[in-house]
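Sequence, structure tokens reproduced for absentees:
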Amino acid sequence: MARPAKPLKKVLLKSTVRPEVIKRCTSLIDKEVGKKSGLTGLAIKGGYKIVKNLKGGKMIPEAVDWLLDEFVEQMEPVAADFVKNGGELSDESALTHCFVTEKSTLANALLTVTDSRAQKAKNKIMVDAYKKLRPMALREVEAALPGVASVIAATAKEVKG
């Protein structure tokens, strides 16, 4: 029996593109947080500012690097089905449509990673910030999925090119 394809791993985890993927993901997080408004936005921005300033401002890129392999693994089933059904990871519009259609599945899969890591974390500041933001996380992760699709498509175009 053939093993299922792992299209995201082949694109996002290549050592030659990983640093760029981390930069793009960090920029996406900055952009998503910057779009928040109201009381929820205030809470998200406040928590993010605390976390972003940890480790001399290197916490977010380090966290992305630290979580990337597990995030890719969690998104892989949806991406593999997308590719199996004729989709191209470099097609941002089609990939975005897929991710929006599967937003609940993808967001919950990604949150299993961060929930697991938060349970094991030793940094009290990060754990407290995560606990405060977690109740609104599903909606926020779902809203960010078009940006995730954009990061994947841009990287796939480079790898393909």
The chain has eight helices and no strands.
